[in-house]
Design goal:
Elements: H1 3-16, E1 21-25, E2 28-32, H2 35-41, H3 45-54, E3 62-66, E4 79-80, H4 86-98, E5 101-106, E6 117-132, E7 136-146, E8 152-154, H5 156-161, E9 165-166, E10 173-175, H6 182-198, H7 203-223, H8 231-244, E11 247-260
Parallel strand pairs: 3-4, 5-11, 6-10
Antiparallel strand pairs: 1-2, 2-3, 5-9, 6-7, 6-11, 7-8
Helix pairs in contact: 7-8
Length: about 260
């Protein structure tokens, strides 16, 4: 994840959560947090508890983030964020707490708007596929389904990064009604994920099974002279299964409904 990607993500994150961006310049964001984001990010439980008890006027804090020190002017001060930084990790976690679903509209530049511009509904699903045995490999996929014509596009998140998105439908724009229901769309995307997995190379599972068999044979040599196997034998058998048995897990990260222009 590049620094510009982080900056773009934070812009959408604060906008979607009704936290006005007071200043947005190269590598720099100054934001007025909403009450909900203050509670999630600023670690002020006693303040909010006292305020709720006394009925006082909320005063959410502001947050200043530097997403790229090299691009940010020297007079700007704030908290640096990068992939893996505690603050960005906290924000990623808050996305799940706030809800794993979002609805956004493409902001059409005024000069490109006709009398009325149609926005097409796309259902986006971001998921993580985990291949797990004694080793682990994670694959993150992003799929988009056009709810009008059924087109499925991979790396959909990368496409969204190129768009200017807003939580409110722009003036002189209207949304097309989906011909495919979101429920049916999710089923189509689930089948696509299963197809991706079935077409993948699963030599890793065969290799894990081989290592499992090797360790099982070694374990048997330790207990081969015992007519009655002790409990430790069965515990070790189960431990080897937990360690080596190939598993495929699919974890839905988040999703959303995005209304985009036909371009």
């Amino acid at each position: 994840m590049q620094q510009q990607d982080i900056h773009n993500f934070l812009e959408r994150y604060f906008t979607a959560n009704e936290s006005p961006i007071l200043e947005n310049s190269r590598g720099y964001l100054h934001v007025q947090l909403s009450i909900d984001l203050d509670k999630l990010l600023m670690n002020r439980p006693f303040y909010w508890h006292y305020l709720e008890k006394t009925g006082g006027t909320p005063n959410p804090m502001q947050m200043t983030l530097i997403t790229n020190p090299e691009e940010c002017s020297e007079d700007k001060k704030g908290e640096q964020v990068h992939f893996g930084s505690p603050r960005l990790h906290q924000i990623f976690q808050s996305v799940q707490q706030l809800g794993a679903y979002i609805r956004l509209f493409e902001q059409i530049p005024v000069g490109e708007r006709m009398n009325s511009t149609a926005l097409h509904p796309w259902l986006c699903l971001n998921a993580k596929i985990s291949y797990q045995c004694d080793r682990k490999k994670d694959i993150v996929i992003s799929l988009g389904l056009n709810l009008i014509n059924g087109e499925i596009q991979d790396q959909f998140h990368d496409l969204l990064l190129t768009k200017d998105l807003t939580p409110k439908i722009p003036d002189f724009c209207f949304t097309l009604s989906p011909l495919i229901t979101p429920r049916s769309g999710l089923s189509r995307l689930e089948n696509t994920i299963r197809s991706i997995i079935s077409q993948d190379d699963h030599q890793w599972a065969e290799d894990a099974q081989y290592r499992w068999d090797q360790d099982l044979r070694l374990l048997e040599t330790f207990y081969e002279d015992m007519e009655e196997k002790p409990e430790s034998y069965f515990l070790e058998i189960e431990a080897l299964k937990d360690q080596y048995e190939p598993k495929i897990n699919i974890n839905i990260i988040n999703g959303g409904l995005f209304y985009l222009s036909s371009k």
